Automatic annotation (TrEMBL):
MF (Gene Ontology): phosphatidylinositol-4,5-bisphosphate binding
Source organism superkingdom: Eukaryota
Residue spans crossing the bilayer: none
Presence of the UniProt keyword Methyltransferase in the record: no
Protein name: Exocyst subunit Exo70 family protein
Keywords assigned: Exocytosis, Protein transport, Transport
Protein family membership: Belongs to the EXO70 family.
GO CC, alphabetical: exocyst
Occurrences of domain Exocyst complex subunit Exo70 C-terminal (ranges): 2-145
Reported function: Component of the exocyst complex.
Keyword tRNA-binding: no
Length: 148
């Protein structure tokens, strides 16, 4: 992780090396905290046991909440990409942020698979899953996430 060139210019003097190091340390700490928050969010999505029953196979409230949170994050994608560069290695071809978001979406899908088992009718179970997956895909396509 590197400091923004503007920060380097402002603190270019040799007397400011401690300031540059402190700023870099703060950025690394912020990156680690952001990463941990995403991991925690993924776990919350995966383990959500809300008792909200959707009897007609429509989109589950959990799906709506998770997608809204993810879409909100796209407003900060440049900052998040910068922070998540800390966790990328030279051999990574994927953005670490994209990997984390994919894990969140997979956690949501796993949770929905479990919730679909509440349906006795296999057709309604399939409709529930199809509606939720369609909502996820169409929401991401309509958002800025599709350009990531």
């Amino acid at each position: 992780m590197k400091l923004d060139p503007r920060v380097e210019v402002i603190f270019q003097d040799s007397f400011c090396s401690e300031m540059r190091e402190a700023a870099l340390g703060l950025m690394k700490l912020l990156a680690q905290t952001a990463h941990e928050m995403f991991v925690d969010f993924e776990e919350l999505v995966e383990k959500d046991t809300s008792k909200t029953n959707v009897h007609d196979g429509t989109v589950h409230p959990l799906t709506i909440r998770v997608i809204n949170h993810v879409k909100f994050l796209f407003d900060y994608q440049s900052t998040l990409k910068l922070l998540f560069q800390e966790f990328e290695t030279g051999s990574d071809t994927e953005s670490q942020l994209a990997v984390v978001l994919t894990k969140i979406m997979q956690a949501l899908q796993n949770n929905l698979d479990g919730k679909s088992n509440q349906y006795k009718d296999p057709a309604l179970m399939s409709i529930f899953l199809a509606n939720n997956i369609h909502y996820m895909v169409s929401s991401v396509r309509r958002s800025q996430a599709y350009t990531w």
